Give the backbone structure.
Amino acid sequence: MFGKKKLSEKECSDIADKSEDVPSECLIFASVKAKLDSKNDPFAGMPGGAARAVRNAQIQRRMSTRHGQGVQGKKSSWF
């Protein structure tokens, strides 16, 4: 801690804009956390109901698709 300069919120925000490798001391700022979360969330710009609907549709698709079932695909049965 000695000789180490404490980063300001502006400096941390600039670091978060440039890369995802943000120092842990920057995570105390809510704006920096929000910026990192929005980078990781592909549905960040969507309204809440639409984002939820897309996520549910993706989950349903993933759960209903069987992989490696041969030429017949979903028509073949595993039991």
Observations:
- The two ends are 62 Å apart (CA to CA).
- The chain is about 50% helix and 0% strand.
